[in-house]
Design goal:
The model has no long low-confidence stretch (mean pLDDT 90). The chain has a two-stranded antiparallel ribbon. The protein is built from 14 helices and two strands, in the order H-H-H-H-H-E-E-H-H-H-H-H-H-H-H-H. With 278 residues, the protein is mainly alpha-helical.
Length: 278
């Protein structure tokens, strides 16, 4: 069983000096809970709307970000606490966009210039994720691509795409050569080098999954499509992990050899000189 580091994390960032925040965060983030509740999120929302809000560092906890993103972008969370979504969005947007300047223990300034536009980006894409209606996504694709430049939105879209594509019947209904969900994943890889590993971890189980309801040739074509996404990831800088993974598939015979050949051919096609001496 893992150790509960919540109390240590909050103590190290000084949250104990703010009892209300400390209580709200511990009630959600301890191992025994690890779940949001609308009352505590509302408390955070109210505190960070005050003229003199607490330090933003208390919101910059990976576990809190993860829970907020899941609540806002997971289709399976569609109906939970919908009336409090504006507070969830505000707390998440505040945590990722607001910056502060400190002089020792005294805060000199708070910069909220990017807060409103971040709220808008999360709000728009969150609504599309909850609606989960492909025509709506297509109608708003230009706006979506603009908002994918926000790292927090990209993490939300990865969460949404992962849940949608892991449905066993997903590829059965796909008629496009590359589904919109995977196009968005490509765009995230273009925009955010720090998300490359997350994108790769999204693609691997999609490639490895069995599609027993499809014919063998259809399964091969789907896996080629996923390999093309991996090649794209390689092209934007995530080189070694992709090559190591495909080498593993070759050595352990976990993928059809035609797929390995396809990967090699695609890589050769996008590789151009000059080459290093090695």
């Amino acid at each position: 069983m893992g150790r509960d580091t919540c109390y240590i994390t909050l103590a190290m960032c000084g949250a104990a000096a703010y009892p209300t925040i400390y209580q709200s965060l511990t009630s959600m983030l301890t191992l025994s809970k690890n779940a949001l509740n609308s009352g505590d999120v509302t408390t955070l929302y109210q505190l960070y709307n005050e003229d003199d809000p607490p330090p933003v560092a208390f919101l910059r906890l990976p576990q809190l970000f993860e829970l907020l993103i899941e609540a806002l972008y997971s289709p399976s969370e569609r109906s939970r606490n919908a009336e409090h979504n504006d507070k969830y969005i505000y707390v998440l947007a505040y945590g990722v966009s607001v910056t502060e300047r400190w002089d020792g223990e005294e805060r000199r300034s708070i910069n909220t210039k990017r807060l409103e536009q971040t709220i808008n980006a999360i709000e728009k894409t969150h609504k599309l994720a909850k609606l989960d209606d492909m025509p709506e996504w297509l109608c708003n694709i230009e706006t979506v691509f603009k908002y994918l430049k926000y790292p927090v939105v990209s993490m939300g879209i990865i969460k949404y795409c992962k849940e949608v594509t892991m449905d066993s019947s997903y590829f059965k209904g796909v008629t496009d050569s590359v589904p919109l969900h995977l196009i968005m994943i490509d765009e995230i890889a273009n925009n955010h080098p720090l998300h490359h590993e997350t994108v790769f971890e999204f693609l691997k189980p999609l490639f490895e999954r069995s599609h027993e309801h499809l014919q063998e040739l259809e399964q091969i074509e789907i896996r080629k499509m996923i390999i093309d996404r991996m090649v794209h990831l390689l092209c934007v800088g995530h080189v070694i992990p992709v090559i190591q993974y495909m080498r593993y598939c070759l050595d352990h015979e976990t993928a059809d050899k035609s797929l390995i050949r396809h990967f090699a051919a695609e890589v050769m096609e996008v590789t151009t000189s000059p080459y290093s001496a090695e």
